[in-house]
TrEMBL record:
Organism annotation: Penstemon smallii
GO MF annotation: an example: transferase activity
Keyword vocabulary terms for this entry: ATP-binding, Glycoprotein, Leucine-rich repeat, Membrane, Nucleotide-binding, Receptor, Repeat, Signal, Transferase, Transmembrane, Transmembrane helix
Membrane topology: Single-pass type I membrane protein
Protein's name in the database: Protein kinase domain-containing protein
BP GO annotations: defense response; response to other organism
Transmembrane residue ranges: 534-557
Amino acid sequence: MPFLSLLSIFLVGFLSRSQLVVTQMLNDDQTTLLAIGKELKLSEWNGNNSDHCNWPGISCSSNNSFVQRLDLSNHWLQGNITLISDLKSLKWLDLSHNNFHGNIPFSFGNLSELEFLDLSFNSFEGSIPKELGVLKNLRALNISNNLLMGVIPNELQGLEKLQDLQLYTNRLNGTIPHWISNLTHLSVFTAYENELSGFIPDKLGLVTELQLLNLHSNQLQGSIPEAIFAMQKLETLVLTQNKLTGYIPESIGNCKVLSSIRIGNNNFIGGIPKEIGNITSLTYFEADNNNLSGEIVKEFSKCSNLVLLNLASNGFTGTVPIEFGLLSSLQELIVSGNSLFGEIPTSILKGKNLNKLDLSNNRFNGTIPLSICNTSRLQFLLLSQNSIRGEIPHEIGNCVKLLELQLGSNYLTGNIPPEIGRIKNLQIALNLSSNHLRGQLPEELGRLDKLVSLDISNNQLSGNIPSALKGMLSLIEVNFSNNQFNGQIPLFVPFQKSPNSSFLGNNGLCGEPLSASCEGLDSNSYHHKVSYRIVLAVIGSGLAVFASVFVVVLLFMMREKQEKAAKNEVTDNNETNNKPLILAGNVFVENLSQAIDFDTIAKATMKDSNKLNWGTFSTVYKAEMPSGMILSVRRLRSMDKTLIHHRNKMIREVEKLSKLFHDNLMRPIGFVVFEDTMLLLHQYFPNGTLAQFLHDSLEKPDYKPDWPGRLAIAIGVAEGLAFLHHVAIIHLDISSGNVILDCNFNPLVGEIEISKLLDPSRGTASISAVAGSFGYIPPEYAYTMQVTAPGNVYSYGVVLLEILTTRLPVDEAFGEGIDLVKWVHTASVRGETPEQILDSRLSTVSFAWRKEMLAALKIALLCTDSVPAKRPKMKNVVEMLQEIGSN
Ligand SMILES: *[C@@H]1O[C@H](CO)[C@@H](O)[C@H](O)[C@H]1NC(C)=O
Ligand SMILES: *[C@@H]1O[C@H](CO)[C@@H](O)[C@H](O)[C@H]1NC(C)=O
Ligand SMILES: *[C@@H]1O[C@H](CO)[C@@H](O)[C@H](O)[C@H]1NC(C)=O
Ligand SMILES: *[C@@H]1O[C@H](CO)[C@@H](O)[C@H](O)[C@H]1NC(C)=O
Ligand SMILES: *[C@@H]1O[C@H](CO)[C@@H](O)[C@H](O)[C@H]1NC(C)=O
Ligand SMILES: *[C@@H]1O[C@H](CO)[C@@H](O)[C@H](O)[C@H]1NC(C)=O
Ligand SMILES: *[C@@H]1O[C@H](CO)[C@@H](O)[C@H](O)[C@H]1NC(C)=O
Ligand SMILES: *[C@@H]1O[C@H](CO)[C@@H](O)[C@H](O)[C@H]1NC(C)=O
Ligand SMILES: *[C@@H]1O[C@H](CO)[C@@H](O)[C@H](O)[C@H]1NC(C)=O
């Protein structure tokens, strides 16, 4: 008994003591969290809720209250994070997408339980602390997108359980260490966009689990180690933009699960091994800008999943194998800049998915096939600089999806077929220059109201420049030079704004911008000249005849007018009588649902007169409700059928977006799905877009310079985008045309829905469809084909330049091949001062304005740096701009 009681006393004492210990440790974690909360200004972490395990971002182990997971990602945080290393039980730490500076604390080496560490998308500096190498349990280490320097420390080889190692977009140098091949569990290894040099370790092939290896944009040398392909799990291999040499090994065919191979912009030599055909899962093969040679192997045709094949700028010869017709998934075939010849491969044109065909700068010597767009949905047809003969077939008009048509520098003959006017989507360029085309320009070209660049120079075209071309409302660049045109150049701003070189070499042309004036010439069309002559003749031959001819002419003209009117009526009736078939619709704002009528909305988008503007992915209409309320309706261009297939998912995404509150974002207030079209509803603001505000103000005589107003707009747009990045949304089409100004000229970033609806990483979009707007596309997109946050910063930089210069992102005035970004960046080379770049109507108003504009110009230059890693983050752009405003 006494023994027992003694024991029980002892036990009780022991238990309460251990409880005390537990409680104390428990309090320790809470104390640590309170201190961290104070340091990082996390207002939600306070003592009000006694159980810290319920605080946001925290989870604890179930049987005690030790903090096991800490997720503070996406919070704009800054401050000292050293204290986190006191949370000794931590297994999972995510601090990504914040604003942390300074060194990564070496005390993190004390978090011995840690399995997941994500410090990516911050501004950590210095070197990678070697202390991290003791984290034996670490499975994922992500320190990408920081400012880390120096070499990859050898101590990291202690991370034996590592599965994911992400080091991309830093300033790391030295070589890729050999011990990397001893990390036998490694499945993801990325170190792209660094300054790594030396060879890719030979034995990387021993890492049997490796699925993804991405080392692009470094200074790596040597060849691809054969052993890499011995690993049967490698799916993605990206080595673009290095200094790699040697042959592509035959062993590449051993790796059956490879889906993406991107080795462009290196110095590889030799041919492509036939074994490529053994990789049945191959989706992307990109090997442009190397020294590869030989014929394009027909074995590619066995890769039935191939979506993109890019072999541009190499030394390939021979023809495009007809077997390529088997590639039914192919979206892009890019073989420009080689020595290929023969016919344009008609077998490929059968592919329904073919989106881009780039054969330019080769020796193709066939004709343009009549079947050119029977089945394909081509958006890019690039055939310039070849030896293509024959006429442009009328069937070209079937290519209604084309965004760009390049046929320049060939041997094309005959007339320009009027059917080109049916290609209403044509917007990037129509280039028929340097051929042997003759005859008159078809008036139908005037229907191309989205076209930015038209080049028909160096042909034998004749007749007048039809005034119907004034329908080309988006035109910026034109070139009519070296033809046989005559008569007056029509009065049309894009024509008169062009340099006279655009019209030179045509003996019969007169009027601005040429110096030859049209005096004495009847400026009107051929038909009017004829009737003028008829009248003259009539006067000569007696009044009676004159009267009857006059009546005939009059009757004829009246009938024509009536016919036209009747035609218009028919189309109008079609539009209004056909009741649109509404499949789904919703209004998210409760007190508005009464006032909104879906039928009216759908009908409004069928009338061109309601069109407000258009972008890469959508057209915007104005819709007036029976209630008198006016809406802005965005009609998505369903370039991608999948858009419709994923309708329910899209609707969910739109509903989610409607809950995204920010002063500088245009939120959807509802949607309508009718037939195969999706309409997004927004509030209507009569002030229009930023593009209209900037570029239409040029012509306004009552323009009042307002730099503070412009700066506020710049800050607002930056804030909207920073918020989007904060919630991990990448915008797919940033342009001044997608910024709407509300009644107070507060900017609202629009077209955010498309970023969710067309997310390329989810494979719901065709690859070319996501490039964004002409002039705003970041240069790296050409080889990464990914829109990224730094890519968004670039596009924003273009908008900021527009605000500062009041110039368009693409303008012929900059010179050939030069856009706004290049023009500004090369100002000093041209010997111009920054002041010559700025809009002088603003910069000359006051010394203070000029100073602020120069500071903003510096930011715009940073944003548009050609190296994505050098661009600031959006949130930093906001801070820098705000600083300008507050000084
Ligand atoms: C915590 O409680 C105090 C006192 O009750 C209160 O003043 C404070 O606002 C609360 N903090 C938060 C973030 O709820
Ligand atoms: C808590 O549970 C984990 C397993 O979930 C176990 O490993 C650990 O020993 C337990 N700790 C205590 C104090 O019971
Ligand atoms: C953070 O605080 C620790 C002391 O707690 C100090 O040693 C360290 O230098 C600080 N780090 C930074 C980046 O200020
Ligand atoms: C890490 O832990 C060791 C002992 O376990 C201790 O001496 C050291 O001070 C700790 N480091 C930091 C930075 O907390
Ligand atoms: C960092 O890498 C890990 C492991 O690959 C990954 O799970 C995580 O999503 C990455 N973080 C970010 C912000 O991309
Ligand atoms: C790496 O960069 C650091 C800091 O910029 C420099 O001191 C060092 O010499 C570089 N090392 C190599 C191998 O290039
Ligand atoms: C890799 O591991 C092997 C055997 O475990 C060992 O002999 C070799 O030294 C290690 N290599 C490196 C670079 O650490
Ligand atoms: C791999 O490709 C070569 C050359 O095309 C072919 O002879 C061989 O049969 C293929 N092997 C397999 C396993 O498919
Ligand atoms: C096209 O060029 C190839 C190679 O120069 C030549 O053999 C062939 O005869 C040419 N075809 C035509 C139709 O000119």
